[in-house]
Please model this.
Amino acid sequence: MREPLHASTRINLEKVELLLVDDSVPSLNLLAQVLVGFGVTNLTRADSAKAAQTLLRERTFDLVISATNMAGVDGYELVKWLRRGALEANRYLAVILVSGHTPPSHVFKARDAGANFTIAKPITPKIVLERILWAAKEDRQFIECATYLGPDRRFKNDGPPPGAKGRRREDPPQALRPPGAQAQGGADPEKVKP
Amino acid sequence: MNTVRKFRAPNRLSMLVRADGGVMAKDALAAADAALEPLRAESLAVLDAALAEIESRFGKSAAATRAAGVYQDLYTLALRIIDVSGFLPGSCVDQAAISFCALVDNCAEADAWRWDAVDVHINALRLLRTADLGPDQRRAVIEGLNKVSQRGSKASEGL
Model:
């Protein structure tokens, strides 16, 4: 569970190099105003993913906030590219995606893009600030394999249920269940013999 | 064999955010709200213009020509409403526009317009934007829209 935003939390975004990407001008303006309100002074805007790619090849940023629904290259493709094709110094930077609607056909694309967090539009300053703080406190390791490069997509460390596909060697032998809950399906393949 | 590498990546944002100075979250939020305020009228004008364009290109008044409309165009107009609907908290306009996006996406998947459902969404958006409705009434409108937009979709068929 990630920490909710506290009124007294201190945040300094003055020196953060932030790239904001959205091909919707009204949306770009709203997000920019929110970020300026937060004290961001080094804000660069890009009105397309292509323009963002050019910037990410040339300059170093500390945070990218990008819309997902964009004509041409969308936000998911931008992040996927960023993790492998951007300037070396930009490949592991924090990325927050902002989405108005995610079609069911894009759910896996969204999951596999490699972003740190996603925000649903319409944006509210509270959620934007909270996600920036979450990104700053990101403690997930990066995973790199043939099909994915980005923060570990698992937010919890339970792993899938014992016996299910996708479990890792380091997953706990017993999935974390409420006290007294029975394991499903009888025999537990992860159970260690005495 | 698929090699998986796990590693800790440097997080520059983390170091910068914790630097001396800065502001408290409550002050940052208040400043952001104040910074947004000048965009209120402009944003609501964008919302109304998007709704008007949806009606003129995809509404009943365009019955003779709307079949030639492009799914992506209507989807983009509905997204534009979502973008700026934060200035109408509690109105449920954002949720109606999200349902509209889902409907258009389903239509695009099936490559077939459902004009009755499109008309219902346009009417609902207009109603939510202009009528003096209570929270329960607004919620009922959204529940109805979600049923309409999901009807016939793969999700509603459990696929």
